[in-house]
């Protein structure tokens, strides 16, 4: 049985390298310091890889075991293995070098002469070479000679998005379908192993830099610009057309340089760029912009992200001296094997100077932009600690300098102006080709932004088209404030009933977000919300005094009359045309109608044929109605939905008590996608921003439905 030792049992280790090796017929021994993960792998002897794409699949990984990477017994495991791989992070490689060296020494002592190949599958340039140098430090001269003869250290380039998604089983993992594993063919000892999905490459540096200056560049720009605009995930960020335009332009700019340097087919490379952007848009891969943008100095600094030049393993030592001499040449001098501006030349013995055209050289860009020293080799003070910026840093600098003013000055992009009841009715008229609307329940929430808060509404509206359901309550001095509950205990830093405080007294408390984190925001007045939302967004008012249990009939009737007073000519709400009233019965709707209220629409519950007939028999025209159809689309009620659509009425599900309650982020996102595929006209959710990056358009939803049907038909054959 073939055996592989995989250092690192994290998401990449399990979801990418370990899974590929197990599928290739290896028994995979995971070596990790996480005792809980090690114990769970040894207990279950299996885990599931969720492949998330247009059509989702599951892959069961079963031929596995695990052990503590600090255990002395690991050396014996390495002694009997054909392959050692890592997915631990560049900074951890020196820490595992001793264990690998001990395994190599054990192979020598046991007289094993079958080749062993060690591959560091890390997100960095020449990671295996770095690991090799660290391993050799733990070996004596005789062991190093033996290692040189029988152990290969191929460098590689890896590419697969594996987001940190928690699941019920802590060792299950979520991955994208795409992956790429390019390994330096010439550095293998013995025959190159046949591993489906692994590509033995003759020009590895081309693949390394293609990934670095395409995927990593695009990922970083998406993360940094998305963070600046308040997005939380990569798919949210890339769904912003402004960011998408910038990212694509930057990737095409770096792409032109790669095509010139390595001879990639231009059309194929630009198609590769489009594929990568499509991966960023994958609605199932909810990768956080903070995680992707973490450690900017490591990602952007040449001194940290770029490793020494990649040399052929048989290159003469003098090559290094020639390179150092070349670096001391005056600016503008091109020597054979010298790097073009911004790139260290990784390969020896290649013909020609391999210089980029001037329009593609970072040095030329630096001269045009006044960023001196960003791409040209030159002597520095040997005592200076300043690092030469990498081409990626320059690229990001130029891109961000061009777009940041536009980002900062951009108005709220999803505002809608409603100037009359007719325009409100037109906004909510059913159209079979219209995109699904995602509505923010209680004004929408996200980390740092609490419910029923003007700042939360503004943040959500800046990110996506929506409208808001809001709630209100009365203070002791009869000020109407935004508040779902009759008390402030759950949503603020205070305690007690809203009605026991004046509005001024309530301002001593701060609102808290859904995770109970204190925010700087205060309880707002309803009139301030209305003024903010004028010419921006529609509000759906939910009167808790009418619909909350335990409220007396006297208070309920007084609340109805208050609504009417505000909406009638001369009332505080009469000047606004962006209001919908949420009602629970045909009797409540008729109460407003019979009092002459004609400047609002009604969100009414129609979840049965009886409900439809009751409203159809009422004097309220259908153009004043939006239909709430409860928690989910019910196929048995399709005739009711068809009748509503025939009247031009849009249907809305509220998932606040269903899909919103799913705790696991991955499972919740899958639940949201399922809600979209069911095709209500409107979805009301506590977390509208989490829908960013999911398919809202009818065409996209129909494409998903068709893909699922094709997959189903294929499985039936």
Structural topology:
Elements: E1 3-7, H1 11-23, E2 27-32, H2 35-44, E3 47-52, E4 57-61, E5 64-68, H3 74-79, E6 83-86, H4 93-109, E7 116-120, H5 127-136, H6 141-150, E8 151-152, E9 156-159, E10 173-176, E11 180-184, E12 198-201, H7 204-228, H8 234-238, H9 241-262, H10 266-280, H11 289-293, H12 296-300, H13 302-305, H14 318-327, H15 362-369, H16 391-409, H17 421-427, E13 437-441, H18 454-463, E14 468-474, E15 480-482, H19 503-506, H20 526-533, E16 539-542, H21 544-547, H22 553-567, E17 579-582, H23 586-594, E18 601-605, H24 609-617, E19 625-628, H25 638-646, E20 651-654, H26 665-677, E21 682-685, H27 698-716
Parallel strand pairs: 1-2, 1-6, 2-5, 3-10, 6-7, 7-8, 11-12, 13-14, 13-21, 14-16, 16-17, 17-18, 18-19, 19-20, 20-21
Antiparallel strand pairs: 3-4, 9-11, 14-15
Helix pairs in contact: 4-5, 7-9, 7-10, 7-16, 9-10, 9-16
Task: Please provide a brief summary of the model.
The protein is an alpha/beta fold.
């Amino acid at each position: 049985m073939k055996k592989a030792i995989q250092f690192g049992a994290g998401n990449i280790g399990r979801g990418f390298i370990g899974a590929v090796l197990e599928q290739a017929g290896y028994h995979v021994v995971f070596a990790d310091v996480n005792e809980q993960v090690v114990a769970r792998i040894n207990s279950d002897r299996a885990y599931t890889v969720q492949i998330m794409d247009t059509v989702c699949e599951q892959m069961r990984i079963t031929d596995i075991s695990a052990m503590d990477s600090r255990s002395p017994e690991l050396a014996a495991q390495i002694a009997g293995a054909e392959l050692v791989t890592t997915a631990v992070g560049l900074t951890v490689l020196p820490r595992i070098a001793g264990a690998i060296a001990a395994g190599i020494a054990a192979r020598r002592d046991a007289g094993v002469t079958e080749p062993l190949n060690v591959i560091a599958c890390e997100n960095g340039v020449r990671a295996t070479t770095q690991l090799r140098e660290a391993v050799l430090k733990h070996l004596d001269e005789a062991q190093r000679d033996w290692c040189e003869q029988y152990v290969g250290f191929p460098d590689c380039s890896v590419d697969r998005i594996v987001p940190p998604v928690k699941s019920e089983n802590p060792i299950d993992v979520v991955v994208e379908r795409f992956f790429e594993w390019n390994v330096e063919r010439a550095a293998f000892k013995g025959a190159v192993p046949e591993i489906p999905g692994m590509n033995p490459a003759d020009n590895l540096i081309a693949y390394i830099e293609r990934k670095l200056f395409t995927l990593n560049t695009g990922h970083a720009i998406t993360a940094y610009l998305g963070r600046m605009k308040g997005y939380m995930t990569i798919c949210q960020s890339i769904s912003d057309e402004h960011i998408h335009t910038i990212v694509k332009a930057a990737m095409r700019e770096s792409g032109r340089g790669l095509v010139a340097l390595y001879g990639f087919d231009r059309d194929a490379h630009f198609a590769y760029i489009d594929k990568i952007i499509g991966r960023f848009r994958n609605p199932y891969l909810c990768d956080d912009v903070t995680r992707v943008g973490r450690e900017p100095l490591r990602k952007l600094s040449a001194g940290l992200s770029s490793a020494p030049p990649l040399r052929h393993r048989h290159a003469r030592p003098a090559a290094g001296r020639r390179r150092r001499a070349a670096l001391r040449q005056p600016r503008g001098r091109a020597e054979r094997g010298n790097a073009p501006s911004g790139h260290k030349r990784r390969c020896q013995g290649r013909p020609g100077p391999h210089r980029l055209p001037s329009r593609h050289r970072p040095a030329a860009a630096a001269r045009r932009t006044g960023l001196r020293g960003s791409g040209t080799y030159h002597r520095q003070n040997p005592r200076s600690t300043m690092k030469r910026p990498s081409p990626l840093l320059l690229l990001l600098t130029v891109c961000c300098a061009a777009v940041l003013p536009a980002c900062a000055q951009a108005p709220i992009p999803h505002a809608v102006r409603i100037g009359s009841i007719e325009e409100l009715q037109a906004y909510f008229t059913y159209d079979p080709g219209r995109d699904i609307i995602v509505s923010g329940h209680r004004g929408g929430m996200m980390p740092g932004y609490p419910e029923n808060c003007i700042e939360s509404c503004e943040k959500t509206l800046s990110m996506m088209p929506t409208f808001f359901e809001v709630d209100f309550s009365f203070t002791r001095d009869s000020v109407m404030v935004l508040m779902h509950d009759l008390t402030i205990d759950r949503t603020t830093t205070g305690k007690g009933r809203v009605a026991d405080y004046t509005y001024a007294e309530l301002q001593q408390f701060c609102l808290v977000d859904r995770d109970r984190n204190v925010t700087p925001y205060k309880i707002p007045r309803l009139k301030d919300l209305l003024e903010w939302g004028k010419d921006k967004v529609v509000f759906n008012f939910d009167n808790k005094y009418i619909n909350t249990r335990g409220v007396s009939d006297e208070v309920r009737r007084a609340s109805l009359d208050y609504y009417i007073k505000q909406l009638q000519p001369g009332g505080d709400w009469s000047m606004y045309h962006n209001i919908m009233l949420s009602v629970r019965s045909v009797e409540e709707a008729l109460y407003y109608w019979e009092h002459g209220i004609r400047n609002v629409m009604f969100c009414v519950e129609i979840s049965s044929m009886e409900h439809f007939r009751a409203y159809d028999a009422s004097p309220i025209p259908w153009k004043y109605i939006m239909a709430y159809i409860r928690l989910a689309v019910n196929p048995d009620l399709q005739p009711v939905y068809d009748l509503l659509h025939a009247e031009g009425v849009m249907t809305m599900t509220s998932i606040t008590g269903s899909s919103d309650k799913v705790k696991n982020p991955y499972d919740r996102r899958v639940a949201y996608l399922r809600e979209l595929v069911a095709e209500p006209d409107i979805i009301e959710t506590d977390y509208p921003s989490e829908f960013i990056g999911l398919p809202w358009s009818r065409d996209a939803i129909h494409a998903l439905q068709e893909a699922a049907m094709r997959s189903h038909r294929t499985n039936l054959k």
